[in-house]
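Appendix C. Worked example: Circumsporozoite protein
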Amino acid sequence: MRMLYLLPIVALGACQVTEDKGNNQLTVQYNQDVAENAAADVVNGAKDAGAAISNSASDAADKVKNVDVDVNVDTNKADNNKTANSN
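Step 2, the predicted output written as structure tokens:
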């Protein structure tokens, strides 16, 4: 969906503007080959970015899996208070 936001920019980049000052004319031409190449570059860049994000997420998941943590939780607060207050 976000790729659609780039389409106007790619289309604008495919426009070739020439100015003929002698005849006071301005010509704007749309070059489809340039637009297709630019769109392909954007798609390839997005694929590369997605692959990099996926690889980073996999690496992070592997690191998390290799962590051993021992947690001791004492939820019996009533007995702890009796022991501490008995002195």
